[in-house]
Design a protein that fits this description.
D-Amino Acid Oxidase, Chain A, domain 2; single chain
């Protein structure tokens, strides 16, 4: 929007880019993360996955940051016969949807990643599921936004939205009205806390807590090169030697405590996949809150209020869906046209399920 010449202000309740996007692992995994019931979502995630190279090319015009896009692919592994049976079911489900996957036996999986446990019996390789360093990406986006004269207001919480005659008037900050022609609700897990919206317009978004940690590898001889998913956790290698380990899935509100059980479960799950991690120093541990809608799919585009636009509820796909979200939401604001790919993800899909 800023690069199109619009005057854009971001109001951030805390530090800019320090919530779910900062806490993420940066996996661009439309394929291996697709689950039964997400067939329609797969169309959107696959499109966004394909948009990533162009998105980064455009970003590089206004930012000197390198977000470290990596295209080695993703490997999903099975530790025993039961894991392999479940993996075979998922593999066939995803293959039937047209996802490009390759089945590997244990030996073939260890050829890709020699440090995998000898107990690995099978694997699935996805060549199209890549990764981005999400924290470097956020720095690049901030730099590009400011270069295009966008303004970021940190530690400035929007407490409400003012609407008059079915049009937005502006946002409420410190009991004062800041006028705006268009308001994009992109408040992540906090999106349903905004006052001034009717029940039908309040995004049904809740926080789903995730604990994560990172370990420190030798960047010259890393334990992993691919993103690797085990039965209960994933590992994401970075060029600087960090190895991200995630993530728990907890319905625990905005409880930001790291727990011994959560961290232990992640470490144990990854140790079973890569036993050599036990020698690695712990670099960092953190908690994030996935913005999760009632059906785990994003809430995008127009509402029945003029100037009120949604871009929230991305659950675990916020980084992956960044390009398609940016393109479709900005296109709607500039032209008034809803692109067909986001039509199924309007907030209106929830209107028939509201309990009075």
């Amino acid at each position: 929007m800023a690069s199109a010449g619009c005057k854009v202000n971001i109001y951030e309740r805390g530090q800019s880019a320090r919530e779910a996007s900062w806490a993420a692992a940066g996996m661009l995994a439309a394929g291996v993360e697709c689950e039964p019931g997400e067939e329609n979502l797969l169309k959107l995630t696959t499109l966004s996955q394909q948009l990533w190279p162009k998105f980064l090319q455009d970003l590089s015009i206004d930012s000197k940051q390198n977000p470290e896009y990596r295209d080695e692919g993703t490997l999903v592994v099975a530790l025993n016969h039961d894991d392999a049976t479940r993996l075979d079911f998922t593999y066939n489900f995803q293959k039937n949807l047209g996802i490009n996957l390759e089945w590997l036996d244990g030996h073939e999986a260890r050829k890709l990643e020699p440090h995998l446990s000898p107990s690995i019996v099978a694997g699935v390789y996805s060549c199209n599921d890549h990764q981005i360093n999400n924290r470097l990406l956020l720095k690049a986006l901030e730099e590009a936004f400011i270069f295009q004269e966008g303004v970021i207001h940190e530690n400035t919480e929007v407490t409400g939205i003012e609407i008059y005659n079915e049009s937005v008037k502006g946002v409420i900050i410190d009991n004062s009205l800041i006028q705006a022609d268009v308001i994009v609700v992109a408040a992540g897990a906090w999106s349903n806390n905004l006052k001034g919206l009717t029940q039908e317009l309040t995004p049904p978004v809740r926080p789903v807590k995730g604990q994560m940690l990172s370990l420190s590898m030798d960047p010259n001889i890393p334990l992993l090169k691919h993103v690797v998913w085990g039965p209960s956790a994933y590992l994401v290698p970075r060029y600087d030697g960090k190895l991200l380990v995630g993530a728990t899935i907890e319905e625990n509100g905005f409880n930001s405590h790291l727990t011994a059980g959560g961290i232990f479960s992640l470490l144990e799950a990854c140790w079973r996949v890569i036993p050599n991690i036990e020698e690695l120093p712990i670099n960092e541990m953190w908690v994030g809150f996935r913005p999760t809608s009632r059906d785990d799919a994003p809430i995008l585009g127009a509402t029945n209020i003029k100037g009120l636009v949604m871009a929230t509820g991305h659950h675990r796909n916020g980084i992956l869906l960044a390009p398609v979200t940016a393109n479709s939401v900005s296109n709607f604001i500039l032209t008034g046209n809803i692109t067909k790919e986001i039509e199924p993800f309007s907030i209106e899909r929830f209107s028939n399920n509201i309990k009075h």
